Structure formats: C-alpha cells, structure tokens
C-alpha cells in the first residue's frame, strides 16, 4: 500500500490532487471559517441558527405560573383540582383508590366537595375526613390538568 501511495505521490497527477485538496481546504476555511454552526434559510427568507433568543416583554420579570403556584399552599398540600395522583402517596390510605376517585371527579368548588363523590364508601369518606387538612383548592390550571398528566405525568422513581 505504501508503495502505491509513493508512486502516486511522485507522479504529476498525485501532486495536482494534493495541491487541489489543500487549496480547497484553505479556501473553504477562509470563506466558511472553522467550526461555525450551520445556518439555514427558512421559508420566509430569514436566517435561523441554533441560538435561542428570549424576549423580555417590557422589562418585566418573566414568571412561570407553575413556579408561582408551587410557592403557595399548592406546593405543600394536595390541590384537589390540580395535583397529580402520585402526590397522594405521601398520605396513608389515600393512594391509589381515593386518589383516583378525587382526580377523576375534579374540578371542585370547595375542598369539602370531595366528600360528595358519587360511589364513595363510608370508610373512604372517613379517611378523607381524617386528612381534610392536607387538601387545598385552586382553580384548575391548564398546564396541570390537560391531557392525562394527573394520572401519569411520566415521572418514574
């Protein structure tokens, strides 16, 4: 193999190919630079790249409504209109049966409304009554209740 390479390298053809390759590399580097991100022209003619720009509306602090909700009682109690079924695991006797019924019958106007769930047995009502202080209520938030995320949010431990 080395012998073939030496023969090609000594011929005029091999020198021309080598010179062409080096020239192409140098021109390409000069025009394109080295290790530049790829830019593509979208359908509207604008150039987009892999850089994300975030706009701040009028200099106001950008807030995430879910983070705001976590700073309230919602972060420490079970919000009967928004909390995922897995949060009920922290409280003995509420998971999975009672939790499933509470989540399935939401939304509620008041925490006490969960005691009126159709088909709730007396023992389940008693268990809810014993734990009524761990519940809170807020308006349903689409970011928390849309889809089936209240039953399976894809977080596995």
TrEMBL record:
What's its membrane topology?
Answer: Peripheral membrane protein
The GO biological-process annotations, alphabetized, read as: photosynthesis; photosystem II stabilization
Keyword Electron transport set for record: yes
One GO CC annotation:
plasma membrane-derived thylakoid membrane
Which compartment or compartments is the protein found in?
Answer: Cellular thylakoid membrane; Membrane
Task: State the Pfam families in the record.
Answer: PsbU (PF06514)
Keywords from UniProt, A to Z, are: Electron transport, Membrane, Photosynthesis, Photosystem II, Thylakoid, Transport
Lineage top rank: taxon: Bacteria
Where is it mostly found?
membrane
Q: How does it assemble?
A: PSII is composed of 1 copy each of membrane proteins PsbA, PsbB, PsbC, PsbD, PsbE, PsbF, PsbH, PsbI, PsbJ, PsbK, PsbL, PsbM, PsbT, PsbX, PsbY, PsbZ, Psb30/Ycf12, peripheral proteins PsbO, CyanoQ (PsbQ), PsbU, PsbV and a large number of cofactors. It forms dimeric complexes.
Record function comment? One of the extrinsic, lumenal subunits of photosystem II (PSII). PSII is a light-driven water plastoquinone oxidoreductase, using light energy to abstract electrons from H(2)O, generating a proton gradient subsequently used for ATP formation. The extrinsic proteins stabilize the structure of photosystem II oxygen-evolving complex (OEC), the ion environment of oxygen evolution and protect the OEC against heat-induced inactivation.
> To which protein family does this belong?
Belongs to the PsbU family.
Name this protein carries in UniProt: Photosystem II extrinsic protein U
Which species is this record about?
Answer: Leptolyngbya foveolarum
Gene that encodes it: psbU
